[in-house]
Design goal:
CATH superfamily of the largest domain: Vaccinia Virus protein VP39
Shape: globular
CATH class of the largest domain: Alpha Beta
Radius of gyration: 19 Å
Order of helices and strands: HEEEHHEHEHEHEHEHEHEEHHHEE
Number of strands: 13
Distance between the termini: 45 Å
Bound molecules: zinc ion
Strand content: 15-25%
CATH architecture of the largest domain: 3-Layer(aba) Sandwich
CATH topology of the largest domain: Rossmann fold
Number of helices: 12
């Protein structure tokens, strides 16, 4: 949920390119949104919307450090909602990849991994943020590495399933990220992705005012088309791609996200929430549902391991 991946080749420079689409490298980009400190461009070839110029990786890590604590505490309080949200994901995963080694990229506090372990998967996680990772390790006893996906340096084909929830949009290099995901999934293995939907109901209704564009942790904004492009360009075959509906949230979670969206007003918002605290104790329990807000994709790396061995050579 909070991982920013740092491609090894960029670690030294800690800067990202300001020219060309960060997914397909096309130079055919048009201005989509020009707001205070946040300019979003849209690629005319793959459709990806992304910040321009892309913030440096060091700046993204700084922002992540500043925002992870309120977000993490909200996650812990919303543990039940998260776990309920992940159950159908695990049902789906069990239908297509019933067992094996599973890596969750950007695993956060480890709720998904914990549930996946309960279903019999051999689980591990990676997350750049030490605080949620410590929760996953110390409280849930999970195998979680504090690093980027690149730093994990997993062997090729190491996992039967890789999940990456609400993380791809943090990465200044989604093409490199998808290539790395493809590399570490075994032939025939499965990738499961969620990310905010820039073509979802709320985003369409709000247009350029969509709060998704204000999320300071997010640098790219995927639609069904651009997510399809990202996964297929990496080599995956898409089995499911949809805008999902109805993730349950608490008011407290929503207000914490607002602090993130309106980051430049964060002191004002936090003070306001403090004043409203008695009301928040009641409102914080009110469940809300996100309408068609996230993309959900299931993809497979082509080729089952058996198919590597020619028919004639098999015993
Ligand atoms: Zn593009």
């Amino acid at each position: 949920m909070t991982t920013i991946v740092r491609p090894a080749e960029q670690a030294a420079a800690a800067t990202t390119t300001t020219e060309g689409c960060c997914l397909c490298q096309s130079r055919r980009q048009k201005l989509f949104l020009d707001a205070k400190q946040r300019t979003v461009v849209e690629c005319e070839d793959c459709g990806l919307r992304a910040l321009s110029p892309m913030p440096t990786l060091d700046r993204m890590i700084e922002i992540n450090e500043e925002t992870v604590h309120p977000f993490f505490s909200a996650c812990l309080e919303d543990e039940e909602s998260y776990r309920a949200y992940f159950e159908p994901k695990l049902d789906e995963l069990q239908r297509i990849q019933p067992e094996g080694r599973l890596l969750d990229v950007g695993c956060g506090a480890g709720f998904f991994l914990d549930a996946a372990r309960g279903r019999g998967y051999d689980v591990s996680g990676v997350d750049l943020s030490p605080v949620p990772a410590a929760h996953a390790r110390d409280r849930l006893g999970l195998d979680v590495t504090v690093d980027s996906l690149y730093g994990l340096d997993a062997p090729a084909g190491a996992f039967d399933a890789v999940t990456i929830f609400q993380t791809i949009e943090h990465d200044p290099n989604p093409d490199a990220l998808c290539a790395e995901l493809f590399r570490i999934v075994r032939p025939g293995g499965v990738l499961m992705v969620t990310t905010p939907a820039a073509d979802g109901f709320v985003a369409r209704v709000m247009g350029r005012r969509w709060f998704g564009y204000r999320n300071v942790e997010h640098v790219s904004f995927f639609s069904q088309d651009s997510l399809r492009h990202a996964l297929e360009a990496a080599g995956f075959e898409i089995e499911l791609l949809e805008v999902e509906h109805g993730k349950k949230l608490s008011m407290k979670y929503v207000l914490n996200r607002l602090i993130n969206y309106y980051y430049d007003h964060r002191t004002f918002l936090r003070n306001g929430l403090r004043v409203l605290h008695p009301a928040m104790m009641v409102l914080g329990k009110v469940p809300l549902f996100e309408p068609w807000a996230h993309l959900y994709a299931v993809a497979r790396k082509p080729g089952a391991p058996e198919s590597v061995i020619p028919e004639a050579l098999r015993a």
